[in-house]
Amino acid sequence: MKANIGLIGLAVMGQNLVLNINDNGFKVAVYNRTTEKTDEFLTGPAKGTEIVGTYSIEDLVQKLETPRIVMLMVKAGTVVDHYIEQLVLLLDAGDIIIDGGNSLFTDTDRRTKALKEKGLLYIGTGVSGGEEGARHGPSIMPGGHPDAWNRVKPVLQAISAKVDGQPCCEWVGYGGAGHYVKMIHNGIEYGDMQIICEAYQLMSEGLGLSADEISSIFAEWNSAELSSYLVEITANILAYKDEDGSPLLDKILDTAGQKGTGKWTGINALDLGIPLTLIGESVFARCLSAMKDERINASQKLPKPVNRFEGNRQEALETIRNALYASKIISYAQGFRLMREAAKEYGWTLNYGKIALMWRGGCIIRSAFLNDIKQAYDSNPDLENLLLADFFVDAMRQAEPGWRKAVILSIELGIPAPAFSSALAFYDGYRTARLPANLLQAQRDYFGAHSYERTDRPRGEFFHTDWTGHGGKTASSTYNV
Ligand code: 6PG
């Protein structure tokens, strides 16, 4: 009997996905560049299963039923192109290649188009949930050539996480849409992690709470509106003790790594002109954390405020909880707003309710909160911005006073809270009908004759003023928004 699907790349995510596919009753053939890894897998985790090992791509392709499905779980970038080049020589029209890595959406777009010309159906899919998710049910975000969807749907939906019986896997859209949505997921993941870190630092350094105390607070917050995988694991991490009985967290070096998906999200937001401030701050916060030696040096030369917290701890904790929740809402509102712009720019029809549903289970950002987002888009699929949904208008109204106090506390104590504070600045800007950009336009016109529109004239009519009496009457010919 031929295998239903082939998988290339037996690193931990690949291995776990194969085991998951096998558990769901599909026959899988596997290939890995280094044969030892294949042998170790077959004699180890895959022992006693129906999983078939192969030792060349030719052999893998021969072992598959037609039309074939080959899934790549390899490092994003040129490695993906390398395997595609080999597969193209062996596959027939109508066969499907799935890339399940964290590929850049523009690469996926290019590959979908190039393979379409060869009669092959390409899918680029986000797979989120880490090792555990891959093994027991990840969130899967497939996009690419739509003709491939019906063929791969039974496998991908079977292995995905389920919430209320619904699979956390739905077709996202053409070309790079699946990987785009995964990129936004990762950007939001960066934001969620950063705001949790800011809450942690305010509690530990600001309020002087111990790791155990903070662990209990996160555990408590995890039972209400902040309930999420990342808050849950944060409570566990804080409670974890090193061999000497002290919190392991205190011994972990404060320099964050990153593989690039958060940065891509920020770059895309700049490209599309959408303020994605919270995720942007989260990427920069990681960059700042990595400048460890420079920070140590600066910490000796640039003294911090000497203020100490003197208020009511319980009240302060409540304000930090408000800041965490309100900032989270801002982050998702910005992320979904960016997706809306991307859909317009790249010609996708994104279903935001379905995206929220896909993220409700299996993935790193899974949370109760995504249910509220799903409901907001269910009741208005054309919602311009999440912040305008009744539920979130109310939530922000309730959280705002505390959030503002938490930001003030961070400023007074000199504890950095870039995501909390920039989210608040965004919120204040977003709900301001008149911003100081009138002055900005005047400045541009003053030094560069860039022209401006007037409030007392129709939009689209541009004016230039000779501000000094020495300038000419000619406006700059380019007016780029
Ligand atoms: C997921 C994660 C995963 C990501 C890691 C590391 O959804 O399972 O987003 O895809 O690669 O979390 O990301 P960084 O190294 O950039 O933090």
Automatic annotation (TrEMBL):
The active site is at 182 (proton acceptor), 189 (proton donor). Its EC number is 1.1.1.44. SMART domains: 6PGD. InterPro entries: 6-PGluconate_DH-like_C_sf (IPR008927), 6PGD_dom2 (IPR013328), 6PGDH_C (IPR006114), 6PGDH_Gnd/GntZ (IPR006113), 6PGDH_NADP-bd (IPR006115), 6PGdom_BS (IPR006184), NAD(P)-bd_dom_sf (IPR036291), Pgluconate_DH (IPR006183). Keywords: Gluconate utilization, NADP, Oxidoreductase, Pentose shunt. GO terms for molecular function: NADP binding; phosphogluconate dehydrogenase (decarboxylating) activity. The keyword Oxidoreductase applies. Residues 178-468 form the 6-phosphogluconate dehydrogenase C-terminal domain. Pathway: Carbohydrate degradation; pentose phosphate pathway; D-ribulose 5-phosphate from D-glucose 6-phosphate (oxidative stage): step 3/3. It comes from the Bacteria. It catalyses: 6-phospho-D-gluconate + NADP(+) = D-ribulose 5-phosphate + CO2 + NADPH. NADP(+) binds at residues 9-14, 32-34, 74-76, 102. It holds the Pfam family 6PGD. Substrate binds at residues 102, 128-130, 185-186, 190, 259, 286, 444, 450. GO terms for biological process: D-gluconate metabolic process; pentose-phosphate shunt. Belongs to the 6-phosphogluconate dehydrogenase family. Homodimer. Catalyzes the oxidative decarboxylation of 6-phosphogluconate to ribulose 5-phosphate and CO(2), with concomitant reduction of NADP to NADPH. This is 6-phosphogluconate dehydrogenase, decarboxylating. It comes from Methylotuvimicrobium alcaliphilum (strain DSM 19304 / NCIMB 14124 / VKM B-2133 / 20Z).
